[in-house]
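Researcher: Here's my situation. A collaborator sent me these components and asked whether they could plausibly form a single complex. I don't have experimental data yet, so a predicted model of the whole assembly would be a useful starting point for our discussion.
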Amino acid sequence: MFVVWLGQRLLLLLAVVFTAASLNFLLPKLAPKNPVETKLLQLTESGGALTDIKDLVRAYEEKFGLDKPLLTQYGNYLRSMARFDLGYSIAHYPARVIDLILRALPWTIGLLLTATFLAFGIGTVLGALIAWERGSRILGFLAPGVMVLAALPYYLLGLVLVYLFAFTWRLFPLQGGFSITAVPALTATFVLDVLRHSILPALSIVLASIGTWALAMRGMMITVQGEDYMAYAQANGLSAGRRFFSYGLRNALLPQVTALALQIGHLAAGAVLVERVFGYPGLGNLLFQAIEQSDYFVIYGVVFIIVLMIAGMMLLVDLLYPLLDPRVRPGGAG
Amino acid sequence: MNTRLVGGLVLLGLLVASCLAGLLLVDLDDARPLSAAIAHPPSAEYWLGTDTAGRDLAAVLVLGTLLTAKVGLLAGLIGITVGTVLAFVAAYYGGWTDRLISAVVDVLLTVPGLLVLIVLASAYPGQMTTTLMALVIAGLAWREPARQIRSQVLVMREANYVRMARLSGQGGLSIIFHEMIPNLLPYLGAGLVSAVSAAILASVGLEALGLGPRGEPTLGMTIYWMILDGAFLRGLWWWILEPVAVLIILFVGMYLLVTGLDETANPRLRRRA
């Protein structure tokens, strides 16, 4: 049972990554002019100081040259992707794409993980409370505000936060992942500096996504409250706190975790744009610079790694699911 | 009428009204670079100020809202049309056709849309226009309508009035157009609104990343230029606040409209207690 389920999840992960890699290969070929070849041609023609770039072009031609049949190119492409050989950056040759990505990746993962779990936790509890304490005035006032924030893309809320907290009140830095003067090292000052820079980007993701979780949880909690076991628990004289956490929240949480797995893609794509607003040194900013310079290998590499990251996080959420639901636990009932 | 629907209509109506008023009051040619003073704060001459390239922001915002709406409507219309056709082909004919279409839709729904659109849009450096933008976004916008409408058609196919029509010898196309489509109209309407809303969201996101039409001042491009030219560092508060405010009204309005329509079209979602 569990093994089959795990197998299905792994297959899904592979399917997502494979599709993303294939689209990465195929979509640019749909354009009337292959953008990669146009860019490389421009570079070789302008020549001059960029003689190094010829090695890049030669390496590209060897693998993806137009003389090769499409299937051979595709095979070469998939093989490189499987080995994380994402090629070289055109703009920063001879830097390898994978090195640029590895430098940016920790920033994105840190931001994304913190913001996702904060938003999920706060939103879920808030939604459950809104359903539980119907008639509470504070919650009744809070609820519509949180829902409206859910309508905004993260980066837009980010712009509002920068405007208020960094531009007008100067409480937080405008841009970047750390101060220009800071020395990157594992010291208390540097860590504090990084934290100070990460608060606004994280806050924009958290504030904008709390509503989504709260809304879903509220609906789920209302359904759960109508169940017989809730009435039974009350009749047994269990405390309100126990009924809320162990009977209500625990059961309403299950679909919420499934939703988390589905939302991760949306969150990651949103984080890319947030990084752009804040000039945060993660994958989003790398992607933005690559777009500005038509650095295609970096664009495709970053997109591929983000998809991989999303698929990995979805798998992680799926693996955590049995901890919450004994019915899908290995060796559990059912 | 539910409050969300009304709220959404009021906000979007406000936007449409200000655009119409703007068309009468400002000269849209001033949305071009170098047609006004550089980085001028709001004044009697330039009501909403100007940006660092000398665009009059009043004209930019009116034209930008119209262009952004154009991208959304075009992409949404194409998306819902293609999606509906595929849904009918899949659900009505069933068998291998259905399995193939459903499989493609399911696989494409698993990949994160914005990332695929980034790859797609980056293939047209320097040639991007609002029309091409709409076509690029339409390239993915058909997935959700295809899946949702397919399941509706599957239910409808077994409905008595469709069986009746089949028994009385009506052809497939006639059944689709005379029996099914009229009954689907509320779903198609709600689907169109959410497709347009998703398309606008995607287009503004792509534009903010620098993949938009550089020659046309859409709302997303205004955000892009504003960040790129360091409006925050230069203290140009009006250049930040105005497009952000318009986008907030637009997104909240679309969100309220979409969720309000969902509640109306789908009674099961109607708010309990």
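Model: Some features of this prediction you could bring to your collaborator: The mean pLDDT of chain A is 86. The two ends of chain A are 8 Å apart (CA to CA).
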